[in-house]
Amino acid sequence: MPDLLLVGAGHAHLHLIANAPDLASAGYRVRVLAPRHFDYSGLASATAAGSVPADAGRIDVRALARRHGVELVEDTLSGLDLLGRCATTAGGAQIEYDVVSLNIGSIAAAPGMEVGAGVLRVKPLADLASLDTRLETIPGASVTVVGGGSTGIELAAHLSGRGGVGTVRLLDSGSEIGADLPPGARRRVVRLLDQRGVEVCVDAAVRTVTARQVDLDDGRTMPHDIALLATGLAASSLVSELGIGDADGIPVTAYLQHVDHPDTYAVGDCAHFTPQPLPRIGVHGVRQGPVLLASLLARAADAALPTYTPQDRALAVLDLGDGVGLAVRGRLWWYGGTALRLKRWIDRRWLARYR
Ligand SMILES: Cc1cc2nc3c(=O)[nH]c(=O)nc-3n(C[C@H](O)[C@H](O)[C@H](O)COP(=O)(O)OP(=O)(O)OC[C@H]3O[C@@H](n4cnc5c(N)ncnc54)[C@H](O)[C@@H]3O)c2cc1C
Q1: What is the pTM of this model?
Q2: How far is the CA of 223 from the centre of ligand 1 (A)?
Q3: Where are the alpha helices (DSSP H) in the chain?
Q4: pLDDT tens digits for 278-294?
Q5: Which member of 28, 98, 243, 278 has the greatest number of CB atoms within 10 A?
């Protein structure tokens, strides 16, 4: 009976847990090493800004595992011996396995800048989740969001609509925010932020960010009460610490297997998909779930393994607060209440599968 260890209950592994009876029928003993709860990032901006309840995107991994006959080790990974096939938990337990899969997510990257203590990061989500409490304790707080990509825009938009927040500033080192958005969508977002009083500063390369101020490369200094880092995502720092990859992630082939260790799989944001660069978006974790499941079943049956083929364009919907969203697919986009309702419907349907 091969021992399958799933580390982290991210998007892809939730799919495996929910389909664990199939894995058991194929002969696997399935164990999951993960914290009790999973928090869904699609609702993270709204929960962080206090627009929806804090547990709106929460999945109880313990309950899910129990329902599908999976043993959950409620802990986190702290060591991994790929050759000896043994994982060590933060609590000091050792778990031997035959096949391991990692789905441990990402952290906020801080390319080329110094980040002081007390600066909030958008990932891990537990860090972002403390934003609402911080805002409660500092009435009229001025907030600086560093990074004008989709996440930074979402957060600035939400914060500007939240009562009790003073000024909201959005900084980006580029010449415009929302550089990945189609031009019309970008202009629409810029107009919205302007109407909501967000101070957008472009060409603002941050050298240092601390809990009190940012220092820019051009010598300017800007004070704030709360700083939020939304400058992109990198693979979980554990990947580099354990020597199984780097900030780009655990290198995997199209089969989602480690390039040098076929008994090790990695999926989602912690993986570096070597056939082509992939953006760190939940869609890939979600779509890799069924491929990973099929691969494990094929292994057990000695059949050919499936490969992961990323979609060319994925639908992304930004939650801009106050009941409006921005849906983007390739160069197509639409803005308004229906875009946000579509996002909520997709989110609810996905969450319902695991609740
Ligand atoms: C504010 C925000 C909003 C976003 N909105 C969207 C969106 O609307 N759509 C979209 O597609 N993408 C969105 N993203 C990107 C999205 O969050 C990631 O791409 C996605 O979460 C990656 O999924 P994953 O399954 O790889 O990892 P995660 O969802 O991060 O899951 C990893 C899991 O592993 C656990 N874990 C971590 N370390 C360990 C350890 N050492 N041992 C055991 N378990 C561990 C974590 O607790 C977590 O539950 C957003 C990101 C942010 C920051």
Answers
A1: 0.95
A2: 30
A3: 11-18, 20-25, 44-48, 61-67, 125-129, 131-137, 150-160, 183-195, 237-241, 282-300, 337-353
A4: 999 999 999 999 999 99
A5: 28
Tokens of 1: 């009976």
Q: What are the two backbone dihedrals, phi and then psi, of residue 297, each rounded to the nearest 5 degrees? A: -70, -40
What is the 105 CA–ligand 1 centroid distance (Å)?
5
* CA distances in angstroms from 251 to 11, 84, 149, 226, 300, listed in the order given: 19, 19, 25, 36, 23
CB of 157 closer than 8 Å to CB of 192 = yes
The model's pLDDT over 12-53, given as tens digits with 9 standing for 90+, comes to 999 999 999 999 999 999 999 999 999 999 999 999 888 889
Segment 71-88 shows an average pLDDT of 97
Predicted local distance difference test score (pLDDT) of residue 111? 84
Instruction: Assess whether pLDDT exceeds 90 at residue 126.
Output: no
The pocket around ligand 1, CB under 6 angstroms, is made up of: 7-12, 33-35, 38, 41-42, 44-45, 76-77, 103-106, 122-123, 151, 236, 238, 268-270, 280-283, 285
CA of 222 to the centre of ligand 1 (A): 30
The share of the chain scoring above pLDDT 90, in percent, equals 92
Strands 332-336 and 325-329: antiparallel
Among 13, 39, 40, 41, the mutation site with the greatest number of ligand 1 atoms within 8 A of its Cβ is 41
Q: Name 21's Cβ contacts closer than 8 Å, sequence gap at least 6.
A: 68, 69
Instruction: Count how many Cα atoms sit within 13 Å of the Cα of residue 348 in the half-sphere of its side chain.
Output: 6
Domains and CATH numbers, the chain: 3-105+234-300 (3.50.50.60), 110-231 (3.50.50.60)
